[in-house]
Amino acid sequence: GEDVEQSLFLSVREGDSSVINCTYTDSSSTYLYWYKQEPGAGLQLLTYIFSNMDMKQDQRLTVLLNKKDKHLSLRIADTQTGDSAIYFCAESKVPMNYGGATNKLIFGTGTLLAVQP
Amino acid sequence: EPEVTQTPSHQVTQMGQEVILRCVPISNHLYFYWYRQILGQKVEFLVSFYNNEISEKSEIFDDQFSVERPDGSNFTLKIRSTKLEDSAMYFCASHQGGLGYEQYFGPGTRLTVT
Prior knowledge:
The complex is a heterodimer of chains A (117) and B (114). With 117 residues, chain A is mainly beta. Chain A contains no helices and eleven strands. Chain A has strands at 4-6, 9-13, 18-24, 31-37, 43-50, 55-58, 61-66, 71-76, 85-92, 106-107, 111-116. In chain A, the strands form two sheets. In chain A, strands 2, 4, 5, 9, 10 and 11 form a six-stranded mixed beta sheet that branches. In chain A, strands 1-3-8-7-6 form a five-stranded antiparallel beta sheet, with no helix packed on it. The N and C termini of chain A lie far apart (41 Å). By secondary structure, chain B is mainly beta. In chain B, the strands form two sheets. In chain B, strands 2, 4, 5, 6, 9, 10 and 11 form a seven-stranded mixed beta sheet that branches. In chain B, strands 1-3-8-7 form a four-stranded antiparallel beta sheet, with no helix packed on it. The chains are: A mainly beta (117), B mainly beta (114). The interface between A and B is medium-sized, with 25 and 28 residues.
C-alpha cells in the first residue's frame, strides 16, 4: 500500500543547513512534493521532483531523490527563523492521460523544523 | 497571485448537525479536492472532483459526505450528520490539470464537533 514516513522533529541553528528526510513505499509514484505549513495556515507548495530525476535545486532548496531506496530529502541552505514550520512530503501518481485523472496526494506525517536564533 | 479561499475559518457545531464547508478554487483550475487533518495526524485525502463529478474518494468519504460545485465558482463539502470524530482541519485544493500538476491549498476550515 501507499505510505509515506518522516521524522517528527528537527532543530537547527539559524544559518545552518537543514535536511528533512522522507521515505515512501510506492515505487510507482510519479511526483514527489514538499509542502510547508506555518502555524494556522494552509499548505504551501515549496517544490516537487519527477521520479525520473535525482536532484532539483531551487534557490535555497535542494531536493534529492534516491529511487532505489525510496528516499527523498529536502535541504534548506542558510536556514532562517522564518523557515520554522512543519514540512510535509507527499507523493502522487498522475497518468499520462490527464482527462478526468485524479492527482490525490499521499502525505507524510510532517516534520516540525525549529530554527534557533 | 490567485489563491484558494475557504470559509469559514472555524466552525463549531453540535453532533448530529449538518455542516457545509465552502471553498473557492483558483478560477482556471479544473480539478478540486478535499483533504482533512485530524489534530496531530497526517493530512488525508477525502475526495477529488472533475467535470462535475467525483473522480475518486477515500474510504473516509462515506454516505455522510457529499461535494458539490453549485455555481461554477464555489466547491462545497457537506457533512450530513456530524460525529465527534469529524473534528479536524479540512483543506480544499485545486489544480489546473494537464501539465498543471501543482495542487494549491486553501488555508483550511477548522471544524469542531461538540
